[in-house]
TrEMBL record:
<dbReference type="InterPro" id="IPR008030">
    <property type="entry name" value="NmrA-like"/>
</dbReference>
<feature type="domain" description="NAD(P)-binding">
    <location>
        <begin position="11"/>
        <end position="111"/>
    </location>
</feature>
<protein>
    <submittedName>
        <fullName>Uncharacterized protein YbjT (DUF2867 family)</fullName>
    </submittedName>
</protein>
<dbReference type="Pfam" id="PF13460">
    <property type="entry name" value="NAD_binding_10"/>
</dbReference>
<dbReference type="InterPro" id="IPR051604">
    <property type="entry name" value="Ergot_Alk_Oxidoreductase"/>
</dbReference>
<dbReference type="InterPro" id="IPR016040">
    <property type="entry name" value="NAD(P)-bd_dom"/>
</dbReference>
<dbReference type="InterPro" id="IPR036291">
    <property type="entry name" value="NAD(P)-bd_dom_sf"/>
</dbReference>
<feature type="domain" description="NmrA-like">
    <location>
        <begin position="128"/>
        <end position="245"/>
    </location>
</feature>
<dbReference type="Pfam" id="PF05368">
    <property type="entry name" value="NmrA"/>
</dbReference>
Length: 281
């Protein structure tokens, strides 16, 4: 067992966790890759971790001095699940934490917003990543990607609203800087891509890059809530449908320079990422 401190990456097999773990190990950092099944991750130490099973928490924290935190998926009150673990992590010697949140969730707001507000008092150094919606939502395992593959359709209640979708690779690049720089950001960071796009724009780009017709079907807020409630718990469905409504009202129609400031390069554009991931199968 090495005495070199490690970064515990929670959600190490997920969209941003896997990319963050890969970038850390490629740069020579020790990584403990946490997942519910302790799935092997290249060049990292696999550890079993389940937010809902405190018996997995102590072993996962062994040797870690910093955390990358992906909240439990689908949990409407993540603070109740996460804060006891974060207090345990601080008592175990963790002094830096980087939390994945969302541009739609402000400090102290619903969902992970409560964890965001607690983080500065818990850790000596910290950052909250608040990315816009992921570009990978249209190419990976997300429901949007599934409906594109199966039906050639995107259903949303976003209307003409625009989003500056962000590449998960860019989120991971910022996460690594926040975890490893001599000085942590000690603030929240809103991450976006280089341009704001409507879902009509997304459908057109996906049609071009996949060679298959993709259309954006606009539905009402209530219809979207009902549709989502067939896939996730009603409370979480209402939260997600509410985010669509916020997009329709312009809440995500913005870009930031955060990726460029933290990484020294511009964020990746949607068309390039869609083409890259379509080419990768």
């Amino acid at each position: 067992m090495t005495d070199t401190p490690a970064t515990l990456v929670i959600g190490a097999t997920g969209t941003t966790g896997s990319r963050t773990a890969a970038r850390l190990t490629a740069a020579g950092h020790r990584v403990r890759a946490a997942s519910r099944r302790a799935t092997p991750v290249p060049d990292a130490e696999p550890v079993r971790f389940d937010w809902y099973d405190p018996s997995t928490h102590g072993a996962a924290l062994e040797g870690a001095d910093r955390l990358y935190l992906v909240p439990p998926v689908g949990e409407t009150d993540p603070a109740a699940v996460m804060l006891p673990f974060l207090r345990r992590a601080r008592a175990a010697g963790v002094d830096r934490a980087v939390l994945l949140s969302s541009s739609a969730l402000p400090e102290g707001g619903p969902g992970v917003g409560r964890v965001h507000s607690a983080l500065p008092a818990l850790f000596e150094s910290w950052a909250v990543l608040r990315p816009s919606w992921f570009m990978q939502n249209f190419t990976g395992a997300h429901a949007h990607a599934a409906t594109i593959r199966e039906h050639g359709t995107l259903w949303t209640a976003t209307g003409e609203g625009r989003v500056a979708f962000v590449d998960a690779d860019d989120i991971a690049a910022v996460a690594v800087r926040a975890l490893t720089d001599d000085r942590a950001p000690d603030t929240d960071l809103v991450l976006t891509g280089p341009e704001a796009l409507s879902y009509d724009d997304v459908a057109a780009i996906m049609t071009e890059t996949t060679g298959r017709p993709v259309v954006h079907t606009r539905v009402s807020h209530q219809a979207m809530c009902d549709r989502l409630a067939r896939q996730v718990p009603p409370e979480f469905a209402a939260l997600l449908a509410g985010m669509d409504l916020a997009i329709a009202e312009g809440a995500e129609d913005r870009t930031t320079d955060t990726v460029r400031r933290l990484t020294g390069r511009p964020p990746n554009g949607f068309r390039a990422v869609a083409a890259r991931e379509a080419g990768a199968g």
